[in-house]
Sequence to fold (620 residues):
Amino acid sequence: MTEHAPALELSGIDMHYGYVRALAGIDFHVDPGEVVGLLGDNGAGKSTLLKVMSGAHRPSGGAIRVRGEEVAFHSPSDAASAGIQMVYQDLALVDPQDISTNLNIGREILRKGPLGWLGFVDRKAMRKRSEAELDRLGVRTAPMTRPVEMLSGGQRQVVALARSAIRVSGESNGVLLLDEPTAALGYEQTRQVEALIRRMAGQGIAIVLVTHNLPLCYEVAERVVVLNRGSKVADVRLAETEPDHIVGWITGARASQFAAA
Amino acid sequence: MTADLNPGATTSAVVPAPATEVAVPTGSDMPRAVSALVFVRDRGIFVLWGLIIVAFSFWCAPYFATLDNALLVANAAALTAIFAAGVGFGVMTGVLDLSLPGTAAFASCVTGWLMTHGQPAWLSLLAGFACGALVGLANGLITLRGFNPIIVTIGSLSVLSGLAAVIAAGYTFPGLDALEFMGTHRYFGVPAPVFVVALLFVVGTVFLTRTRDGIRLMSVGGNSEAVRRSGIHSDRYKVLGFVISGLCAALGGLVTTAVTTEATPEASPSIIFNALTAVALAGVALTGGRGSLPRVLVGALILATIANGLTIRGIQPYWATVTTGALLLGSLALERVIQTSVSNRLMASANLSVHKKQV
Fold:
């Protein structure tokens, strides 16, 4: 109903672990088709914020809105059904199974008729659907019947990203949360994954990218949000800043944009 | 400096030039050598069995290569095959169920007790299978609490073989002739256990490769976390693996009972070791998620074939044990060689393909 609402919006998110305040009044939003880099040093609160977004943690305070509507996530599956998918660093693919099975598990197509009642799957239909979905993402893959264990690191990352992208790009475009998607990849493979991220954004998927990798942000993100010790210290378009400033915010050498407030 | 780092920032909303056309190498980039090696890995055991048969056909002529002898081998392999299916189901789901002999003894003693107390055979058999399923359920639920499945199933092995002896009050249940239809009876000249095995393996294979629950079961064995994150209750499938394994054990126990017309509470550990040998020979990795039932069946058949061939030649049976042990070690070595050489070749082709690929 709210056409121009952000795909995902967090306002005033607080998170306490006992006496430790992990997040203090974080405001964050990502629009459909936008790639936002979430930066910060170790312990800055990136992972905590990501867990709040993915439903793994409930914030101590603040509101989460998905496409303008307030939601409360009690578990990652709540977030998933709201169209928010997390891609973990360990890709969580089933190695001995083929690409098609990995893309279709949990949403299998059953055969029509009595065989379907017995739970028989329609492998051909699933392969076809996955091929169409990957084509839509602009990802050409190895044959659908190739076991994941026979793919290179970059190919696996692409399959893992595609699996999540497929799940959020159903009826309305969702949000992908990526945790260091290129951490384990070589140069060429990193370029491929970067291109895929941009392509997914081009399809209208909102993407939050958590990384230590500044060049990666410059390749794919339009905007970065920098956290420092649980607070947001910067929220800038990359076109309007420069790497030295961002590094300054990350390390704390540069004063917060929101300090005096 | 900024300009150098910044090329993507301004254009990123626009879908870039088709740099991703090569995002994943396509089509026939798998070298032929790799396909061949994968064939050896997945189908090698069938070739091996074929070679053994050919060798014995010459070496043990004219007694080996006859229909009667084939039936003898099949019948001898039947019990091992049933238990191997149980172990195989467990291992593919990622657990090693050592309680199978106990489950088998328990199920057959329950069935024997019921039959000697005037119950009809079908009801007694049903009760035996129910015992197998319940044991699997209990094993699974206990394991889900985070206990090591090997220890849990060793525990239930003790409990069950003890309980079986309690039911039998230290004796056996002899004279269960009503089970002859699935024991010594022959249909079209083929012993009943062979039909049982054929049915079990056909149904099991179709289940594991063609149905939603079977594929999920295998996937849980491969990476239960991945399945869980796909929104599936992977725990249910772990329990299902134990239940199927328990059912196979019960089936094995009941067929044994039918063949011997006697239910005995003795839970022989050699059952599990024969079954494990067949499974390992079939190249089913104990880490789970891989393997296929037809290979397990051939594994059991190889054990029986070797024993049979050597017996025909009048060689003492313990040489059969030596041979299977050596085969098992050899298959491990072969698998290692294939593994490394496949990954070497794939590595080479992956590095190549990034550069030369034109889709």
